[in-house]
Design brief:
alpha+beta; three-stranded antiparallel β-sheet; 3 strands; 40% helix
Length: 91
């Protein structure tokens, strides 16, 4: 499989998450950061397969420019995922 830009790897452990990043060509791997896991609550899974497409469609319908869409699409998709979870939890 060809490498098209940097690759990120996560080593998710009980207490820490190790992060490594490659160079853009994918020839070298570099340690990046270790995050302490601050969250010990329950994790719920939500089907998020179409959230980005749904948000893109809404933004295009609202005539939002491509540059502005790019800047907000991920956080709006995350909002849609959370809204889906909250609605399911209330039901």
């Amino acid at each position: 499989m060809p490498i098209d830009g940097p690759v990120v790897a996560l080593d998710v452990g009980e207490r820490r998450i190790g992060i490594a990043v490659s160079d853009p060509s994918g020839a070298f791997a570099f340690p990046h950061e270790t995050l302490q896991r601050a969250y010990h609550g329950r994790i719920e899974r939500v089907d998020e397969r179409l959230t980005t497409a749904a948000v893109q469609k809404q933004l295009i319908g609202a005539d939002v420019s491509r540059a502005k869409r790019k800047a907000v699409v991920d956080k709006l998709a995350a909002t849609l995922i959370l809204e889906t979870y909250l609605a399911r939890a209330r039901a």
